Task: inverse folding
C-alpha cells in the first residue's frame, strides 16, 4: 500500500509536477546526447560534495574506486556497499539515466526493489534532476571494475527488503526541496548543499528507534552516527554546538579540515572534508556556513 | 541502547581494574608518555590557532613562522612518546593499536607532517601570504591523514 502514498506526495505540489514534465522532456533528449566535458566537470563537483566514494570505495582494503565492498556498521547489521562503477555486469553500466535518478530520488532499484536507507537517498532525493544527470555522466567516465557485490550482513527482520517499504512510508518524503521565498540565494544554495548533496543530517541529526531522523533535533548531534560513531551538535548553540564559531571560521574549517580550536576534524568527518568540502568553491562554503548559522540553536550534547 | 550502556559499564570496570592494579615500572613510564604526548598535542592546537588566523588572512609574519616551527619541533619529539603498550587499550588515550602494527609507517607520517610545517615556516619567512595559506592547508590535511588512521573517536 506504499505506492499510492508515494504518488500522492509526488503530485501534491503543483510545481513538482511541472518540473517532472520538464525533466521528462529533457531526459528524452539527454539519452541520445553524449556527455559534454562541462557536464562531466559539473558532475565531478557534485560527486565530491555528495561523498559517494566515502561509502562505495573500500579504502581500508585498498580496493578500486567505487567498486564497493566497504562495510558500514549500523545498529541493524553490516551493510556492504555495491559496485557503482560503469561495469555492465557488476556495476551500473547498463543503467539508463531514468534508472539512476530513480535510485537517488526514490530509493528504488531498476527492478523495483527498495533500497535500505543506509544509502542516503533520503537526502539525495532533494537533489535536482540536472545534478543527478551530471553526476551519472561523471561516474560513467570512471573506470569500470568487474567486482561482484557482497551480500549485506543483517539480522532478522532487517534483512527483509519489503520491510524497507514500510520504513519509507514512515520516514521518507521523496522529491526536491521546496523553494524559499524569504531567504536569499546564498542561503538557498547552502541549504541545498547541506541538506541534499552533502547529506550532513544523516550523521549530525539524531535518529529515533526506527532509524528515522528526528526533525525537531535537526543537526543537533547524534550518538549513533554512521558506523557506530557519534557526530557533534552543529547548530549555533554556543555551549553544546558551534555557536562560538564565526561564520567565516566555519567555512574555513570545512575547507581545510581544522576547527577554530586548532583541532582537526577527525574520523568520518575527515573523509567528508578530504573528498568533499575541501574541493568546494569558497562561495559554496560560505553558503553552507550561512545556512548552518541560520539554524535554530538546540541545546544538546550527544 | 542498554546494550551500549552495558558495554560501556564493562569497559569502565575493566579500565578501573587496570588503573588500581599496581603498575610495573615500564607501565608507569608509558603513562607519563601518554600524558606528555597529550599535552604536546594540546599545545599544537594553540599554535594551529595562530596558523589558522594567518592562513585565513594570508598573513606571513614572525608569529606565523614561530607557530609553524613550534609544531615542527614538537613533531620531532612526538614519535618518542608512543612506547609500545601505551595505547587506548591500557590508558585513557585515543591512540589506536594500528600505530604499533607498523611503527615505521606511523613515523613516516610524522616526518611528512613535520616537513609540511617546515614549508609553512618557510613561506612565512619569505613574506609569502598566499604561500602560508597553501602550505598550511596541506599541513592541516597531513595532521588529518595521521589522525584518521591512528586516532580513535572522541571519548565522552
Result:
Amino acid at each position: 500500500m506504499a505506492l499510492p502514498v508515494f504518488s500522492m506526495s509526488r503530485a501534491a505540489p503543483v510545481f513538482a509536477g511541472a518540473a517532472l514534465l520538464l525533466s521528462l522532456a529533457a531526459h528524452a533528449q539527454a539519452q541520445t546526447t553524449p556527455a559534454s566535458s562541462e557536464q562531466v566537470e559539473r558532475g565531478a563537483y557534485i560527486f565530491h560534495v555528495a561523498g559517494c566514494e566515502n561509502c562505495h570505495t573500500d579504502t581500508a582494503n585498498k580496493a578500486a574506486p567505487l567498486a564497493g565492498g566497504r562495510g558500514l556498521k549500523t545498529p541493524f547489521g553490516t551493510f556492504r556497499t555495491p559496485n557503482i562503477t560503469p561495469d555492465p555486469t557488476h556495476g551500473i553500466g547498463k543503467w539508463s539515466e531514468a534508472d539512476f535518478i530513480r535510485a537517488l530520488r526514490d530509493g528504488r532499484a531498476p527492478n523495483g526493489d527498495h533500497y535500505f536507507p543506509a544509502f542516503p537517498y533520503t537526502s539525495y532525493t532533494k537533489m535536482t534532476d540536472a545534478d543527478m544527470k551530471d553526476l551519472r555522466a561523471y561516474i560513467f567516465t570512471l573506470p569500470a571494475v568487474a567486482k561482484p557485490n557482497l551480500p549485506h550482513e543483517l539480522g532478522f527482520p532487517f534483512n527483509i527488503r519489503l520491510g524497507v517499504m514500510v520504513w519509507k512510508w514512515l520516514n521518507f518524503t521523496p522529491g526536491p526541496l521546496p523553494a524559499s521565498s524569504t531567504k536569499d540565494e546564498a542561503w538557498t544554495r547552502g541549504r541545498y548543499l547541506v541538506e541534499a548533496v552533502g547529506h550532513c543530517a544523516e550523521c549530525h541529526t539524531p535518529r529515533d528507534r526506527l532509524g528515522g531522523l528526528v526533525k525537531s533535533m535537526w543537526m543537533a548531534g547524534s550518538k549513533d552516527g554512521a558506523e557506530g560513531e557519534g557526530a557533534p551538535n552543529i547548530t549555533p548553540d554556543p555551549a553544546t554546538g558551534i555557536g562560538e564559531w564565526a561564520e567565516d571560521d566555519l567555512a574555513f574549517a570545512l575547507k581545510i579540515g581544522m576547527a577554530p580550536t586548532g583541532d582537526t576534524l577527525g574520523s568520518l568527518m575527515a573523509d567528508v572534508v578530504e573528498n568533499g568540502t575541501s574541493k568546494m568553491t569558497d562561495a559554496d562554503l560560505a553558503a553552507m556556513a550561512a545556512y548552518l548559522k541560520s539554524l535554530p540553536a538546540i541545546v544538546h550534547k550527544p | 541502547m542498554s546494550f551500549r550502556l552495558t558495554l560501556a559499564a564493562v569497559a569502565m570496570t575493566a579500565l578501573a581494574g587496570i588503573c588500581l592494579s599496581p603498575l610495573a615500572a615500564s607501565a608507569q613510564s608509558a603513562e607519563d608518555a601518554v600524558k606528555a604526548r597529550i599535552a604536546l598535542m594540546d599545545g599544537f592546537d594553540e599554535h594551529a590557532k595562530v596558523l589558522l588566523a594567518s592562513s585565513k588572512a594570508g598573513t606571513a609574519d614572525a608569529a606565523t613562522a614561530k607557530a609553524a616551527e613550534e609544531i615542527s619541533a614538537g613533531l620531532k619529539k612526538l614519535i618518542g612518546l608512543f612506547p609500545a603498550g601505551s595505547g587506548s587499550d591500557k590508558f585513557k588515550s585515543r591512540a589506536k593499536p594500528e600505530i604499533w602494527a607498523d611503527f615505521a609507517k606511523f613515523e613516516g607520517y610524522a616526518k611528512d607532517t613535520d616537513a609540511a610545517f617546515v614549508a609553512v615556516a618557510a613561506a612565512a619567512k619569505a613574506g609569502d601570504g598566499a604561500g602560508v595559506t597553501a602550505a598550511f592547508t596541506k599541513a592541516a590535511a597531513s595532521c588529518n591523514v595521521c589522525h584518521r588512521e591512528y586516532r580513535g573517536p572522541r571519548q565522552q
